[in-house]
Here is the input.
Amino acid sequence: MKRLATARWNGGLKDGNGTISTQSGVLDDTRYSFGTRFEDGKGTNPEELIGAAHAGCYSMALSMILSQADLTPDYIETKATVTLEQVDGAFAVTMIHLDVSAKVPGASEAQFMEAANAAKSGCPISKALKPAITMEAVLND
Here is the structure.
């Protein structure tokens, strides 16, 4: 399986701008720029897109792992916070923190944490981003 996304950038770093599109059409010439990445401009940025991809992938992986233990979540909410900072004079994604909250009828805290940690290391996006990931998971009643 292959998925396609495209980006087009016009101009210099600070005065330029670009668009991002996805094969599915969910993003269609979505605007991004220096202002949307490093300031509070309207549009998206690569780190936000990584966070969305990771939160979605992780939630699906956790649901799958819970289902394998005959547990069906009512919901799984995952927030991925992507940290971009300068390291040795260059920008790098230094951390992705997952805040996970779920309601899983019949799950014990131990079962939930085992599944949450397995999803953290097992989802495809986690595997691609592994060195930077931390997590806090909460099982709700």
Q: What stands out?
A: The mean pLDDT is 95. The chain has two domains: 5-38, 50-140.
